[in-house]
Amino acid sequence: MNPLSLLLLSFAMSTDAFAAAIGKGSGLHKPRFAEALRAGLIFGTIEAITPVIGWLIGQAASRFVLEWDHWIAFVLLVGLGVHMIHAGLSADDDAPEDKPSRHSFWVLAVTAVATSIDALAVGVSLAFVEVNILVAALCIGLATTLMVTLGMLLGRMLGQLVGKRAEIVGGVVLMLVGATILYEHFASL
């Protein structure tokens, strides 16, 4: 996996967390930078751990599917991309009634886990391509920290509309990364 693909993958993985952060930010009364950074660090840490777990699962299975690895990575990434696009196009019904000044750690952690399931699946697919998982996890974690911090701060102004669009863009980017992996495999034959 080349550096550009890794960079795109990192930011694609952060878009669903960005969308969630916009929602969380819009649910707060005047979110401050410290609260946004706190949320970013919680999301970023969880988003960095889950691809490593997925990669370990993928490594355990890689010896059984080595000749199909590029197809597995392609299908997983395209499937996740389609799922993110679908989620970005679906209606969102949660409208916060009252706005707290801070979200609890557990609310943020559960939301981060929910948005990092795709990173777990991406970690599985990364086990089938040549990539340093620690570098990939660090990039995904840093991108997520940055995007969630920004999303929390923008959430109050931008609301759900931009959050949904960010998720759609992230889905398209995941599909492009999957197509790039498949292309690189066939180009190397």
UniProtKB/TrEMBL annotation:
Cellular component, GO annotation: plasma membrane
Q: Which domain of life is it from?
A: Bacteria
**Annotated compartments:** Cell membrane
Record keywords, A-Z: Cell membrane, Ion transport, Manganese, Membrane, Signal, Transmembrane, Transmembrane helix, Transport
The principal location of this protein is membrane
Q: Which GO terms describe its molecular function?
A: manganese ion transmembrane transporter activity
The record's section on InterPro entries has: Mntp/YtaF, Put_MntP
List the transmembrane segments.
71-91, 103-127, 133-154, 166-183
Q: Which Pfam families does this entry report, sorted A to Z? A: Mntp (PF02659)
What span is annotated as the signal peptide, if there is one?
1-19
The way this protein sits in the membrane is described as:
Multi-pass membrane protein
* UniProt-listed HAMAP family: MntP_pump (MF_01521)
Q: What does this protein do?
A: Probably functions as a manganese efflux pump.
Record-stated family: Belongs to the MntP (TC 9.B.29) family.
Which protein, by its recorded name, is this? Putative manganese efflux pump MntP
